[in-house]
Write a structure and sequence with these properties.
Length: about 525
């Protein structure tokens, strides 16, 4: 028995109506984030039945799930799949409308970055979860990674916000997962409060945009913002600005960066590495989507704003990193935190430049993000190695690292030189040149000058840290017995993480143009 439905004078059956409105799901397109989410649930369930001595198995299940998620990016490499689209019946135009999930080249590159970053984080964590609740740790890491993988493929504001929160909420718990550690709890609280404020501001902006356009799909927002009635123009501009402010919190752009140093110091080192790479990739991919796809009509609003934020962010990060005391407890992690703020400023430059030229500049941001992900994860991996014998993790603890751990010292020196943009870190130099050229080509000469000055400032603290690696250890007074240097065997997973990032960095330095070719994206 069928039920008749009358719509616009046309009689259809309920079965016909359902067929025309519901689209089948492209499971292959959504496989990468879906696999990460499914494995997270599996880990949570398996954890209930595993005895304590077998908990390390959960780490290997996590890594297998992330490898599987990465493997499913291969059949999507053409970047031409979409799902959750408005059907012809839903749009009333006779053609398929906008889609909520698109596995295009941009989405695939960012998904490879965040899933690869999560995999390296898992490698770092395998030998560092002895005092942490293993089941909760791996479940939260996979949950956050699934949200991070979903976000770059989101093509409507609702999916974008949900993906952002799925990536962020587990991260709060990961920062504060060290039970009984006051610093960890304080860091998690500060991270949570700042993120909640950012989300509230962003949702207010999204509501303004929706009130103006009547849609949440990014491409339809762009079309309707081109012809906004005069009385709604102020509301639309306010929505654009508030949405950008929300993402500025997520990307740690100054003056919304205050949560970064304390959060990195309080979090377990692998999670600090995860936030510095995957968390940043999530924020920047969301920022790219809303500016370049949804808000091109208001490029005269967000272009100058992002250019100013870029200049302020890179300057704040570099000046704060320059002032770090080498003998202060956790000064190494603190310097890496401020360095990540400065790097966020560089990443903002091509996005600002896209307002003045074309979205092709976005490829420079993606290329820089790929370079930064590899070398920054490598630097955190060496920091995790040093922390095993020097829990204070001061910069001064790295002095004389070469005589005791020559390979780790050379790897750290390479990572720092890549971040500084100096040979032999050719990939770092290449990435900075592409960002610099994006600013110049867009007519942002003043921003290019600010960036050049900041690169020179950064050289001082990067080279100072690099030189310390090869200096002789400080001499002990004659009346004091010299301590016998101890060397603990590093976990194989930690050694593998350092080796993998170092080899990848060296290979990319040999063919830096491959990064830009791989990251070449066009969002239209």
């Amino acid at each position: 028995m069928t039920t008749a439905v009358v719509t616009s004078g046309v009689v259809t059956t309920a079965a016909e109506s359902t067929t025309s409105l519901v689209q089948s799901v492209d499971w292959l397109a959504i496989a990468p984030p879906a696999i990460a989410a499914a494995v997270a649930l599996i880990v949570l369930a398996v954890d209930l039945f595993l005895p304590e001595e077998r908990k390390p198995v959960l780490g290997w299940i996590t890594m297998a799930g992330l490898v599987a998620a990465l493997a499913f990016l291969v059949p999507l490499r053409d970047g031409d799949r979409s799902t959750f689209c408005l059907t012809a019946a839903a749009t009333g135009t006779g053609t398929t409308g906008a889609c909520s999930y698109t596995a295009d080249h941009f989405a695939l590159v960012i998904q490879a970055l965040v899933l690869g970053g999560a995999l390296l984080t898992a490698l770092l964590s395998l030998g560092d979860t002895r005092k942490l609740p293993a089941g909760e740790f791996w479940f939260l890491l996979l949950s956050s990674a699934s949200g991070a993988a979903l976000l770059p493929a989101a093509r409507d504001l609702a999916t974008l916000v949900v993906a952002l929160e799925v990536a962020s909420l587990p991260a709060f718990a990961l920062v504060g997962i060290k039970r009984g550690d006051r610093r960890s709890s304080e860091s998690a609280l500060k991270f949570f409060l700042s993120s909640v404020v950012a989300t509230a501001v962003m949702l207010l902006g999204v509501s303004f945009v929706y009130a103006t356009t009547g849609t949440l799909h990014l491409t339809e927002i762009a079309a309707r913002l081109d012809d906004v009635p005069g009385q709604l123009d102020t509301l639309a501009a306010a929505g654009v600005v508030l949405t950008l402010v929300g993402f500025a919190f997520k990307t740690a752009a100054a003056p919304f960066h205050f949560w970064v140093p304390d959060t990195y110091i309080g979090a377990p080192l692998p999670i600090a590495a995860y936030l510095s790479v995957v968390g940043k990739a999530v924020g920047f991919s969301g920022l790219i989507l809303v500016t370049v796809i949804a808000f091109p009509a208001y490029a005269d609003v967000w272009g100058p704003a992002l250019a100013i934020l870029a200049a302020l962010t890179m300057t704040t990060g570099n000046v704060a990193a320059l002032r770090q005391n080498a003998t202060r407890v956790r000064s190494a992690v603190r310097l890496l935190a401020w360095s990540s703020v400065a790097q966020a400023g560089y990443l903002l430059v091509p996005i600002a430049a896209a307002a003045y030229s074309s979205d092709e500049r976005i490829g420079s941001t993606v290329a820089y993000a790929l370079m930064y992900a590899v070398v920054n994860l490598g630097a955190f991996a060496v920091a995790a190695l040093v922390a095993r014998t020097n829990p204070g993790n001061r910069i001064s603890d790295y002095r004389g690292l070469y005589p005791t751990r020559p390979l780790a010292a050379m790897a750290m020196a390479f990572f720092l030189l890549c971040l500084a943009g100096l040979p032999p870190g050719i990939v770092g130099l290449f990435a900075k040149v592409t960002v610099f050229s994006a600013a110049v080509d867009a007519g942002l000469g003043w921003l290019a000058v600010v960036m050049a000055v900041n690169v020179v400032i950064a050289l001082y603290y990067y080279l100072q840290w690099t030189a310390a690696l090869f200096r002789a250890p400080e001499e002990t007074p004659a009346d004091e017995a010299a301590p016998v240097p101890t060397r603990h065997r590093a976990p194989p997973s930690l050694t593998a993480a350092i080796a993998l990032t170092a080899v990848t960095g060296v290979v990319l330095s040999g063919a830096p143009q491959a990064v830009l070719r791989f990251a070449a994206v066009n969002l239209f």
